[in-house]
Write a structure and sequence with these properties.
- The structure is a single chain.
- The protein contains 16 helices and 12 strands.
- The chain has 388 residues and is α+β, with helices and mostly antiparallel strands.
- The strands form 2 sheets. Strands 3-4-9-6-8-7 form a 6-stranded mixed beta barrel, surrounded by 4 helices.
- Strand 7 and strand 8 form a beta hairpin.
- The chain is elongated.
- The two termini are 27 Å apart.
């Protein structure tokens, strides 16, 4: 085996130009695979983060006419005990409201939170542009779009009218930006007790929002199914983001399939290229192989020569491909940027994917050498030497 490896190395070094071209071909193929795979993964991660990264992934809601949930604290505790994969459980009370400003009215959604519990889901403290979180019942936080519509800023007061005719004046403590225009324009965030008091809904909420680790976000439907035993009220139900975003999942699935197809055909082209070049190499080196066989090298060893060539080329091409692929991915994030300078698609590098790509380059190159290896094993040394 050592002799076969030495001969394979000498064959590759004897024609450095051809060796470099083959290695470059493998490298380009693998770099395209890494670039496409990283780009699609980054795009999907960005879409997932935008859609559910800072939102409820699993929600308990009521089908009752008033949409209210009683004994929500006991239900929240049961959920935490039922499934340890839950990273946050936050009760919320949503009610519609109206802001009248200079003969103009803005429809809003009053959202009452326990901000300490909701922070793990929405990361409000990181989304505040100006000011701070409300801590008292007469304080609130509004989105940047609503603030622009009202001409309001932190420190101003806003009067809110609700359906039962009650009015309450809130002190704006902060302006937030959750990166969704409809949310920034309609959400009016205050304390849970404030909304409960305003609507006489003490001890009731409209939903219990939950989140799991982002790494297992696609298991939200399984977690939701595990939580079903805690639902004893027939008017309550559990929803999850996958059931609510079927079109998004369909798009992500289409992206994944197209990415796999591109990567598959890239690998096929690499394999065919290596196999054809090494097959020609058998013809070029047939006289040397014939002499080696006449000197006592067995057919198995002559086959190993070309398998080692495929292995060496795969290693060289794989290492070079990793460098080129990462360089392409990084360059894309530098050139494809938004007006604020942030990349259109964030760079997402999966270490396991890189290892798989490198392994695929080595294996496919080695397998591509099987055809020329078998061909070399069938060479008759006497006939090769005779025909020169």
């Amino acid at each position: 085996m050592r002799i076969a490896f030495k001969i394979a190395s000498r064959f590759l070094l004897s024609n450095k130009g051809q060796t470099i071209l083959i290695a470059l071909g493998i490298a380009i193929g693998i770099s395209v695979q890494i670039f496409i795979g990283s780009l699609i993964s980054g795009l999907q991660k960005s879409l997932i983060d935008t859609t559910i990264g800072n939102a409820s992934q699993i929600t308990i809601v009521s089908d009752a006419d008033d949409r209210l949930i009683n004994n929500y604290e006991a239900l929240a505790r049961s959920a935490k005990r039922q499934d340890l994969r839950l990273t946050a459980v936050s009760p919320v009370l949503d009610q519609p409201g109206l802001i009248i400003n200079d003969e103009r009215s803005e429809s809003i959604l009053l959202r009452g939170f326990d901000f300490n519990r909701a922070e793990a889901i929405y990361e409000f403290s990181q989304r505040i542009l100006v000011g701070k979180l409300p801590v008292r019942d007469n304080q609130a936080m509004i989105g940047i779009d609503l603030a622009q519509e009202l001409g309001a800023s932190a420190g101003d007061t806003i009067e809110v009218t609700v359906l039962n005719g009650q009015k309450r004046t809130y002190l704006v403590t902060g302006i937030f930006d959750l990166k969704v225009q409809t949310v920034n324009k309609t959400w009016f965030l205050t304390t849970l007790s404030s909304v409960q008091d305003l609507f006489a809904k003490d001890g009731q909420v409209t939903s219990i929002e939950m989140q799991i680790d982002p790494a297992i976000a696609f298991e939200s439907d399984l977690v939701a199914a595990d939580l079903l035993p805690i639902i004893t009220d027939p008017e309550l139900k559990i929803t999850n983001w996958k059931a609510q975003n079927e079109s998004l999942l369909s798009g992500l699935n289409g992206q994944s399939v197209s990415s796999y197809m591109i990567q598959f055909f890239v690998v096929v082209s690499v394999v065919l290229g290596i196999a054809s070049v090494l097959a020609i190499s058998v013809l070029q080196k047939s006289k040397q192989i014939g002499i080696l066989k006449a000197m006592g090298i067995r057919s198995r060893q002559s086959s190993l020569i070309f398998l080692f060539q495929g292995l060496i080329l795969g290693l060289l091409g794989g290492i070079l491909g990793l460098g080129i692929g990462l360089g392409l991915a990084y360059s894309f994030t530098q050139f494809a940027v938004r007006p604020d300078g942030t990349p259109v698609v964030a760079l997402y590098i999966d270490q396991n994917f890189l290892i798989l790509s490198f392994f695929l380059a080595v294996v496919s190159s080695t397998l591509a050498a099987l055809v020329p290896a078998r061909k070399s094993a069938k060479l008759d040394p006497i006939e090769v030497i005779r025909n020169g």
